[in-house]
Amino acid sequence: MLRWTVIFIILAIVAGIFGFGGIAAGAASIAKVLFFIFLVLFIISLISGRTKV
To answer: Does the keyword Lipid metabolism apply (predicted)?
Structure first.
């Protein structure tokens, strides 16, 4: 999922450079949503993945 976030943020940067404002804003918002989903899943896996030794 982090790979998709990086892909969309690169797409947003490239679209912003070439002047496609709507596409850049859409890709940046998708990247932001995917990053927060990844962050939440990462925190949940840290909390639930701990085992006592």
So the answer is: no
Asked whether the beta carbons of 12 and 49 are under 8 A apart, the reply is no
Which helix or strand (DSSP H or E) is residue 11 part of? Answer: helix 2-17
Number of domains in the chain: 1
- Other Cβ atoms closer than 10 A to 5: 19
Domain that holds residue 44: 1-51
Banded pLDDT at 52 (limits 50, 70, 90): low
CB 52 within 8 A of CB 26: no
Regarding pTM above 0.70, the answer is no
